[in-house]
Description:
Blueprint: H1 3-6, H2 14-20, E1 29-32, E2 38-40, E3 45-47, E4 53-56, E5 63-69, E6 74-77, E7 81-85
Antiparallel strand pairs: 1-2, 1-7, 3-4, 4-5, 5-6
The chain binds zinc ion.
Amino acid sequence: MEEEDxxxxxxxxxxxxxxxxxxxxxxxxxxxxxxxxxAEIGAVMVYANAPGTVLRCPKCGAVLMRIVGSEDRxxxxxxGITWLEIRE
Length: 88
Ligand SMILES: [Zn+2]
């Protein structure tokens, strides 16, 4: 089997996305990409008065996640999180 045969577009992950993002995320644990601290999302610092909502690391203050919404969509910036562990 060729590598090209294994490559699909993002629509192939639709079921996985529905499964992963259907859970309560405040109990998910994430790793700060800046300092390596691991914390539950419910324990991070949230600034809701910024343009959108900004989540910051409780240890170093680095931005972990930005969420900006409009009437019909949301933008999610998670570049400050190395990984996110979501428990079922
Ligand atoms: Zn940090």
